């Protein structure tokens, strides 16, 4: 990299990256210095109140709709599915106290707890799960998470409009027994149903009030906490749920969530004892990142960029590859994000171990590496193939955020330095950005992915033809076939071989390119313990405590 680019990176204002599907979570805390404020809010001095920040308003607290971390942070503590990830990130009994799996591995029979109740006292029933899962798959719901239900027999056909709700193989055998039949043996199914998309919905309440999830006074919970108050776009409060089957495990009396979308402000609130935890502003990373109070944990996810292959010049594979190979991921994590992330030189995150005992990442290795000379050659060849004397204008779009702006400006400089290409930058607000990306209105845009369940197929299946998560216009029959085979294959070694081949094909055609893998980096107050951040993106406060 030339001196000009190094100077540019060194002088830039930068901020900690957050995924478009993720928003960091912290919230207004107070210690003795804020006792009067706490009393005014109704917090008694002997209550254990955790103060956090959610970054922004949840997209929705309706389980099939709130498919992002700003919704998951709250939902995963208000509600609970058949299983719940434990402190070790493995599924454990939750609403279901036990289950059986058929000999061929396709049918699960779950037995719900007799003491599984909603916060209004209603029993949690098998029918509540049937109602919720069919809502998830109902094409009229328009859930971005519907693809997670495709493992269920009849699920994909119903969601695609080619089948009916009656064809979805989810049945309430009796009030406390749920039977689910899958298309094929799915070893990670118990992990899959920990995702908030599979949480139950109180069918009786939802029938009476379809907007039951929109306000605190209407919300019914079945998890460790229930919703006490909600001032939209400002704050919300959860309190311990006395109807929760495992309430004796819950230590906190209350959790107060702020909604502040700047990490710098969040850190200031932490310093003034308004928050119990904070992310690190990137301009302070060099000073703070190695502190004893900093906790760094792995997170399964990828920060990446999407090309729209239906828009010039990115219909050309070589031009896409040229842009990808012109990016130095190591410089971005070392000089821009500075959050000890791993530079991503492929797509599937580290941490997934196959049947051979080897990590997916170790087997498939680096697939996208910085190579400016090759990038220049590919650009030249691609332009010749398209008959371009001059490259059509390129606009890189990102959603409004200092952190995303910092990365985008760095890429802009790299493309100029390494390709001789001038790229325009454009930022839009999140909701507009997301809709434009889904509608393929953006030429070249930033993205993120946080794993919904711990298996490589979760990321790879996002790029099949027609997937709501694809958002590139890219389609490849061989890729689609590999993903379909991997979802039907019972032999684990063969299943992983299909996934290895699929990732390599993604790199060959490059509809997307990677920047870095995600991690969790937080500073906690000394009196806070037991906060669990699972690699798949769920925040869990069931075991949290505050001395």
Summarize the structure.
This protein has 547 residues and is α+β, with helices and mostly antiparallel strands. The chain has 18 helices and 20 strands. It folds into three domains: 49-266 and 531-546, 3-Layer(aba) Sandwich (D-Maltodextrin-Binding Protein, domain 2); 267-294, no CATH class; 297-520, Dipeptide-binding Protein, domain 3 (Roll).
Explain what you see.
The strands form six sheets. The chain has a six-stranded mixed β-sheet with strand order 11-16-12-15-13-14, with helices on both faces. The protein has a four-stranded mixed β-sheet with strand order 1-10-9-8, with no helix packed on it. By secondary structure, it is of the alpha+beta class. Helix 10 (317-325) runs antiparallel to helix 13. The chain is globular, with a radius of gyration of 24 Å. The protein has three domains: 49-266 and 531-546, 3-Layer(aba) Sandwich (D-Maltodextrin-Binding Protein, domain 2), CATH 3.40.190.10; 267-294, no CATH class; 297-520, Dipeptide-binding Protein, domain 3, CATH 3.10.105.10. The protein starts with a helix and ends with a strand. 30% of the residues lie in helices and 20% in strands. It contains 18 helices and 20 strands.
Number of helices: 18
The class by helix and strand makeup works out as alpha+beta
Largest sheet: 6 strands, mixed
Residue share in helix: 25-40%
Assembly state (oligomeric): single chain
Q: Which strand order do you get reading across the main beta sheet?
A: 11-16-12-15-13-14
Architecture (CATH level 2) name of the largest domain: 3-Layer(aba) Sandwich
Task: Please tell me the overall pLDDT.
Answer: 90
InterPro entries: Peptide/Ni-bd, SBP_5, SBP_5_CS, SBP_5_dom
GO molecular function: peptide transmembrane transporter activity
Protein name: Peptide ABC transporter substrate-binding protein
Subcellular location: Cell membrane
């Amino acid at each position: 990299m030339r001196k000009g680019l190094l100077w540019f990176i060194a002088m830039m204002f930068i901020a900690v990256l957050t995924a478009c599907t993720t928003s960091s979570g912290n919230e207004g805390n107070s210690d003795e210095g804020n006792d009067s404020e706490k009393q005014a809010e109704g917090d008694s001095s002997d209550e254990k109140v955790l103060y956090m920040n959610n970054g922004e308003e949840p997209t929705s607290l309706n389980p099939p709709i709130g498919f992002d971390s700003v919704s998951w942070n709250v939902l995963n503590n208000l509600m609970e599915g058949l299983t719940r990830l434990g402190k070790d990130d493995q599924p454990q009994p939750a609403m279901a106290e036990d289950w059986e799996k058929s000999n061929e591995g396709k049918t699960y029979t779950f037995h719900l707890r007799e003491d599984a109740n909603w916060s209004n006292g209603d029993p949690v029933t098998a029918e509540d799960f049937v109602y919720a899962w069919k809502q998830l798959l109902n094409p009229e719901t328009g859930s971005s998470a519907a693809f997670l239900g495709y493992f269920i027999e009849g699920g994909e056909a119903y969601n695609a409009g080619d089948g009916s709700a009656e064809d979805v193989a989810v049945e309430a055998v009796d009030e406390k027994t749920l039977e689910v039949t899958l298309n094929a043996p799915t070893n990670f199914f118990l992990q899959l149903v920990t995702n908030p998309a599979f949480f139950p919905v109180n069918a009786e309440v939802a029938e009476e009030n379809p907007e039951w999830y929109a306000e605190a006074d209407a919300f019914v919970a079945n998890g460790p906490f229930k919703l006490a108050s909600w001032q939209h776009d400002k704050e919300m409060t959860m309190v311990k749920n006395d109807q929760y089957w495992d309430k004796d495990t819950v230590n906190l009396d209350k959790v107060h969530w702020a909604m502040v979308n700047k990490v710098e402000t969040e850190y200031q609130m932490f310093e003034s004892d308004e928050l119990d935890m904070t992310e690190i502003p990137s301009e302070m990373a060099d000073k703070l990142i190695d502190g004893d109070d900093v906790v760094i944990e792995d997170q399964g996810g990828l920060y990446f960029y999407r090309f729209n292959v239906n828009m010039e010049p990115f219909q050309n594979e070589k031009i896409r590859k040229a842009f990808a190979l012109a990016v130095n991921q190591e410089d971005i994590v070392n000089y821009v994000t500075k959050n000890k992330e791993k530079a991503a030189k492929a797509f599937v995150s580290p941490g997934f171990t196959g049947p051979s005992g080897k990590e997916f990442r170790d087997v498939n290795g680096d697939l996208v590496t910085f190579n400016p000379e090759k990038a220049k050659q590919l650009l030249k060849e691609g332009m010749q193939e398209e008959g371009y004397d001059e490259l059509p204008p390129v606009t890189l779009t990102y959603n409004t955020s200092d952190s995303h702006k910092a990365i985008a400006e760095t890429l802009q400089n790299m493309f100029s330095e390494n390709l001789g290409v001038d790229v325009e930058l454009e930022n839009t607000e999140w909701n507009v950005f997301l809709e434009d990306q889904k509608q393929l209105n953006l030429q070249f845009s930033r993205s993120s992915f946080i794993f919904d369940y711990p298996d490589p197929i979760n990321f790879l299946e996002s790029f099949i033809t027609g997937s709501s998560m694809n958002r590139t216009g890219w389609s490849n029959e061989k890729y689609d076939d590999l993903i379909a085979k991997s979802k039907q294959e019972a032999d684990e070694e063969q299943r992983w071989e299909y996934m290895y081949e699929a990732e390599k094909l993604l790199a060959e055609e490059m509809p997307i390119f990677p920047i870095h893998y995600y991690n969790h980096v937080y500073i906690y107050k000394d009196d806070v313990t037991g906060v669990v951040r699972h690699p798949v993106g769920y925040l869990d406060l069931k075991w949290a405590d505050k001395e």
